[in-house]
Design a protein that fits this description.
The chain has 15 helices and no strands. The chain is an all-alpha fold. The protein has one domain.
Length: about 375
């Protein structure tokens, strides 16, 4: 009885904290640019982990491990989160972004055949196609909002970047402990986003308390909490169980966005959720455990994610739905930004203005 209650509690904690990354991205980008939010998020994570390493570890890290986790950091942290956070800045609803990201295990399963020579069943391919159809249904209901149509490609690129990190981890196994691997990834991501924030003129963080609240949310809940609960669930259960729980994050995120931001849940969104859950059931009917879900969090296991957050790495690391790959950097000219425009002092004020804008009728071409 006690064991089942513990397992249930860990599962609930994992779903809630993993979903927190999408909510934190919406809060933070209401106050500043995605580059600034990511730069200071990773700077804080690096500072905390660096202090921990200097106090308790202080041991030499092999050069190969630096290279491996540097690459995984680009894919599973910088690339993945840049797509998720930038899409939030452009107005993509948090629930929609979470739904697209949650297709990662199915996509990885489908690609494991041609890329790794593993068997991909017809059921898995059907699940992938059905899942893509569900996402298209959700996106079609959101296109009347304030986000540009091309903004919806960013969560897709983020998800594909995480998939790329999954396969990179399979090819480059590592035994580096979780904390140190996350430190390398966070430090490299800081080196990526700090110059980007400086070049775009948004290096200085907002002075408002709401901004630092969003940073604390992302660091504590998303980076450390999400990964911590992931490890606890994986160690007590199975990798497949963790991957299945990942599909509960879209409805959780949609509900949280409704309560916190007033983001409406459309009929298309609900229908898309049902279709995607059907896709998951088909994909998980494979006679053997899907290879993709196990790989899904591997980049983070051997490394650790955000917030989705963070012991030595196990022999068969579990996959992390990393809150969180390196998606191609979109042209700097799109979308145009007026760097001089003032940022609101409160994310609540910004989101209210965004909703007023999106409520105006838009012409469809």
């Amino acid at each position: 009885m006690g064991t089942s209650r513990t397992d249930a509690g860990l599962a609930v904690g994992f779903v809630l904290l993993w979903s927190s990354g999408f909510i934190g991205a919406t809060m933070g980008t209401a106050l500043t640019s995605s580059a600034t939010l990511l730069a200071w998020r990773f700077a804080v994570v690096t500072a905390l982990l660096g202090l921990w390493w200097l106090t308790f570890r202080r041991r030499r890290i092999p050069l190969r491990e630096l290279g491996v986790h540097g690459l995984l950091g680009l894919l599973t942290q910088a690339g993945y989160l840049s797509g998720v956070v930038w899409s939030a800045e452009l107005g993509v609803p948090a629930g929609t972004s979470a739904l697209i990201a949650a297709l990662q295990p199915i996509v990885a399963a489908a690609l494991s055949g041609p890329l790794l020579g593993e068997h991909t069943s017809a059921t898995q391919w059907l699940g992938l196609l059905l899942g893509l159809g569900g996402v298209a249904l959700v996106v079609s209901g959101d296109l009347a909002g304030s986000a540009p149509a091309l903004a919806y490609t960013l969560p897709l690129l983020a998800m594909l970047s995480l998939v790329a990190g999954t396969f990179a981890q399979r090819r480059l196994p590592s035994t580096l402990p979780l904390g140190e691997s996350l430190l390398i990834q966070a430090a490299l991501s800081t080196l990526v986003f700090m110059p980007v924030a400086a070049l775009t003129g948004d290096f200085a963080p907002p002075v408002s308390g709401d901004f630092w609240f969003a940073i604390a949310w992302l660091v504590v809940l998303s980076t450390f909490g999400g990964y911590g609960f992931y490890w606890a669930v994986a160690r007590r259960g199975s990798v497949r169980r963790v991957s299945t729980l990942l599909y509960l994050t879209p409805p959780t995120t949609m509900l949280a966005a409704l309560l916190m931001f007033g983001e409406p849940v459309t009929a298309e969104g609900l229908a898309g959720l049902v279709v995607c859950f059907g896709a998951v059931l088909l994909a998980l009917r494979s006679p053997r455990e899907m290879s993709a879900p196990r790989a899904t969090m591997e980049p983070c296991t051997a490394t650790s994610n955000p917030a989705n957050p963070a012991s030595p790495a196990p022999q068969n690391p579990a996959p992390a739905a990393c809150t969180s790959t390196t998606s191609p950097r979109p042209p700097a000219s799109w979308p145009p930004r007026d760097h001089a425009r003032p940022r609101p002092r409160s994310w609540r004020t910004s989101l209210a203005a965004r909703r007023r804008t999106s409520s105006r009728p838009r012409s469809r071409s």
